[in-house]
Write a structure and sequence with these properties.
Strand order of the largest sheet: 3-2-1-4-5-6-7-8-9
Helix content: 25-40%
Structural class: alpha/beta
GO molecular function: ATP binding; hydroxymethylpyrimidine kinase activity; phosphomethylpyrimidine kinase activity
Pfam family, one: Phos_pyr_kin
Shape: globular
Radius of gyration: 17 Å
Strand content: 15-25%
InterPro entries: HMP/HMP-P_kinase_dom, PM/HMP-P_kinase-1, Ribokinase-like
Bound molecules: adenosine-5'-diphosphate, (4-amino-2-methylpyrimidin-5-yl)methyl dihydrogen phosphate
Largest sheet: 9 strands, mixed
Number of domains: 1
Distance between the termini: 25 Å
EC number: 2.7.1.49, 2.7.4.7
Catalytic activity: 4-amino-5-hydroxymethyl-2-methylpyrimidine + ATP = 4-amino-2-methyl-5-(phosphooxymethyl)pyrimidine + ADP + H(+); 4-amino-2-methyl-5-(phosphooxymethyl)pyrimidine + ATP = 4-amino-2-methyl-5-(diphosphooxymethyl)pyrimidine + ADP
CATH architecture: 3-Layer(aba) Sandwich
Length: 267
């Protein structure tokens, strides 16, 4: 019997981030992946050259089609683009009593393009964050959510507590953009746990946030606790960045082959 995960996110034509990174991560971690596409981006390793948001009817229909037929063990949410899409996705997830929702608060691509309209941040806070089991903001996203700068571990703790108040059950503030070790902070409302790894000196980090949040969803789909799913996702993203590669002329993608290594006893 397969464990399943649904990604609700944008498409990245270059395959490094978005829906494509999510499905690759699910497959590498042994989970059957499904998708509901919110927006199509024309994108490569150098940047985003076009965005088309899908209309909310077809977004809703994709989610309904999956839930009305298939057991969904976890849901990963990525690029949502605007507040109407946020409201549609939230309503569908509530209607279907979706479990194990991992919300990656995607706002701006590493190459600089806006993937969530600024005026949609309020909708994210009001509608979707309260439905999430785990929210995974990076430093910039955490700061946009809470309204103050998040630049160090102390700020990360303060931000996690504020996001917890918004209604999420667990918060992982990602420290990938801090100098020094790559240290993420998990907060469950009571205690903080750190997940740290040596920083990998690589420019090929296109899709790291997508990969990390999908790996958490894959762990939850397989029945792991949140702590164990975050720990496994941290190992997975570290390997995926270690083996990231120069595809194209810009920021290359992470590499997804954890399960093969794992099965071969190499990791
Ligand atoms: N150079 C790096 N070396 C090791 N881990 C990294 C590196 N960059 C990011 N990470 C890790 O990748 C995950 C995604 O983080 P981050 O890059 O901060 O997110 P985002 O893609 O949303 O900006 C986190 O677990 C973070 O610690
Ligand atoms: C469709 C889509 N979703 C998410 C990201 C964020 O990924 P990154 O921050 O690595 O650019 C992206 N670039 N494209």
């Amino acid at each position: 019997m397969w464990n399943t995960a649904l990604t609700i996110a944008g498409s990245d034509s270059s395959g490094g981030a978005g829906i494509q990174a999510d499905l690759k991560s699910f497959a590498a971690l042994g989970v059957f992946g499904m998708s509901a596409i919110t927006a199509i981006t024309a994108q490569n390793t150098c940047g985003v050259t076009g965005i088309r948001e899908l209309d909310t009817e077809i977004i809703n229909d994709q989610i309904d089609a999956v839930f009305s037929d298939i057991r969904v063990d976890a849901v990963k949410i990525g690029m949502l683009s605007n507040s109407e899409i946020i409201k549609t996705v939230t309503a569908a997830l509530v209607r279907h009593k979706a479990r194990n929702i991992v919300l990656d608060t995607v706002m701006v691509a590493k190459s600089g393009s806006q993937l969530l309209k600024k005026d949609a941040i309020a909708a994210l806070k009001k509608h979707l964050i309260p439905q999430a089991l785990v929210v995974t903001p990076n430093l910039y996203e955490a700061s946009e959510l809470v309204g103050f700068e998040v630049n160090n571990q102390a700020d990360m703790k303060k931000a996690a507590a504020v996001i917890k108040e918004m209604g999420a059950q667990y918060i992982v503030v990602k420290g990938g953009h801090l100098p020094g070790s790559a240290c993420d902070l998990l907060y469950d409302g009571n205690k903080f746990s750190s997940f740290a790894n040596e920083r990998i000196d690589s420019v090929h980090t296109h899709g790291t946030g997508c990969t990390f949040s999908s790996a958490i969803a894959a762990g939850l789909a397989k029945g792991l606790s949140v702590e164990a799913a975050v720990a496994e996702a941290k190992r997975y993203i570290t390997m995926a960045i270690t083996h990231g590669f120069a595809l194209g002329k810009g920021i290359g993608p992470t590499h997804h082959f954890y399960e093969l290594y794992h099965r071969a006893g190499l990791y």
